[in-house]
Amino acid sequence: xxxxxxxxxxxxxxxxxxxxxxxxxxxxxxxxxxxxxxxxxxxxxxxxxxxxxxxxxxxxxxxxxxxxxxxxxxxxxxxxxxxxxxxxxxxxxxxxxxxxxxxxxxxxxxxxxxxxxxxxxxxxxxxxxxxxxxxxxxxxxxxxxxxxxxxxxxxxxxxxxxxxxxxxxxxxxxxxxxxxxxxxxxxxxxxxxxxxxxxxxxxxxxxxxxxxxxxxxxxxxxxxxxxxxxxxxxxxxxxxxxxxxxxxxx
Length: 250
Ligand SMILES: NC(=O)c1ccc[n+]([C@@H]2O[C@H](COP(=O)([O-])OP(=O)(O)OC[C@H]3O[C@@H](n4cnc5c(N)ncnc54)[C@H](O)[C@@H]3O)[C@@H](O)[C@H]2O)c1
Ligand SMILES: O=C(O)C1=N[C@H](C(=O)O)CCC1
Fold this sequence. Notes:
By secondary structure, the protein is of the alpha/beta class.
């Protein structure tokens, strides 16, 4: 498969290696210093594009892929508020996209179990729930896309929570937020050194604490998932989330 790589940062470089190991060919690599090469003509040389850039560039990159008529796998986070309008405008024209806040298999299992756990916890209202995420200090968005997906999974299934609120904790002081309402699910974001991504759902009561946690040891799981998604989407049409690809059942 011929791949166009949009974004050649921490993720783009690992995706390149995994794609080549899986016998794919990288026919176009775009980063901030050669954006003039991101043309419809160049994109048409690829069967699929994989996009890991920044929240401010992702939308225009997606539009370019749609214009070129190639499917695009999007890993960039921090842009999902634009998804409904993008879908309404472009899905009827046959444009193809697969997006995920997290491509790792472990996190997608976590997403699934998180929903089941939230449903179960309706029976035990004396537990207060919160989500914590820790990422490296270069991360541009907060909360992480993964933490938002986890929070949405809880809100859909746990009657006590209606929406989420985020605080970015400065670990050097003891920031406490007293603006979070009872019906809001708190997402606490921490930025520490080079942490690739840690997410924890915490149910706390007076007598005990239940913690459900995913720790990424490196970025390889995200990158492999993105290449698997490109293989999956290549001959499909329309708007897909990664749930369409994994389709877990127990
Ligand atoms: N979905 C997932 O599984 C997953 C996993 C890791 C990271 N991410 C997300 O992916 C994005 C990238 O992460 P990263 O760690 O590789 O970041 P990074 O900062 O290391 O890399 C981003 C790269 O994009 C380049 N870039 C900026 N504007 C561009 C443009 N218009 N066109 C092409 N390239 C451009 C930058 O120069 C940089 O090299 C972030 O939004 C992050 O949250 C998602
Ligand atoms: O390193 C990042 O940035 C990550 N972003 C995704 C998110 O926002 O959830 C996935 C984990 C790593």
